[in-house]
Specification:
This protein is mainly alpha-helical. It has helices spanning 8-38, 43-50, 54-70, 79-82, 84-105, 113-137, 145-169, 179-220. InterPro entries: Pr6Pr-like.
Length: 221
């Protein structure tokens, strides 16, 4: 169903990208746990805090897709990640991560040292890297507008989780969905604007998929 990556350099690129994604995630988790230890706080709470970020969840999906592709698995447990509609949905999500960080979060903090490196990997490097992977490695011509609806379940479910968790413990992962500071009305508007951005990104990917798929079919006729 899925063929191996077309060239050795491209395979090396995907393999290195997979390692970089997992390394960034591992170091970020380590930094959080170190901070929790310094504050004598729960390590379990640190892990929950780590997975409470859309950035972390999405980069984990990115790492899973890249790992499956690097291992040349077209069947079995990894085939799910290599389905075009799945990897394309992950592409839309990681683009949203990069854009949201640049537009809404970059000026809200000033990471230093190792944290700066990890931050760059998760927000600025992995999004374009994964777009390159999507363009060159994901089969084109199969996406439909209905897939955008399926992809949207992920950010919507995440937003619902953030509201429930924030209501329970009073902590929100991002300032633009902080109900305690902004109120539900403003947070809902922010979420709808972000969701609209996600839908636009997704529709662009569907359009590019159809265009590239048509080109490929014409080239083989």
């Amino acid at each position: 169903m899925h063929s191996p990556l077309p060239t050795r350099p491209l395979h090396l690129f995907v393999t290195c990208a997979a390692w970089a994604a997992w390394l960034a995630l591992a170091v970020q988790l380590l930094l959080i746990l170190q901070a929790r230890l310094a504050d004598q706080a729960s390590l379990v709470g640190g892990v929950l805090h780590f997975f409470g970020y859309f950035t972390i969840l999405t980069n984990t999906l990115v790492a899973a897709v890249l790992t499956a592709a690097a291992r040349h698995k077209g069947a079995g447990a990894h085939s799910f990640w290599l389905r075009p509609w799945v990897s394309s949905g992950v592409t839309a999500s990681i683009i949203l991560v990069g854009m949201a960080y640049s537009l809404l979060l970059r000026d809200t903090w000033n990471p230093q040292g190792v944290q700066w490196v990890v931050n760059e990997l998760l927000h600025d490097i992995m999004p374009p890297v994964f777009v390159v992977f999507w363009w060159w490695c994901v089969p084109k011509g199969t996406l439909q507008v209905r897939h955008v609806v399926a992809w949207s379940v992920y950010p919507v479910a995440y937003f619902g989780y953030c509201l429930l968790r924030g209501n329970a413990i009073g902590v929100y992962p991002y300032p633009f969905i902080d109900v305690g500071t902004l109120g539900y009305g403003r947070v809902l508007v922010n979420a709808l604007v972000i969701l609209l951005g996600f839908v636009i990104i997704s529709l662009v990917l569907v359009g590019l998929d159809r265009w590239q798929g048509k080109r490929q079919r014409q080239a083989t006729d």
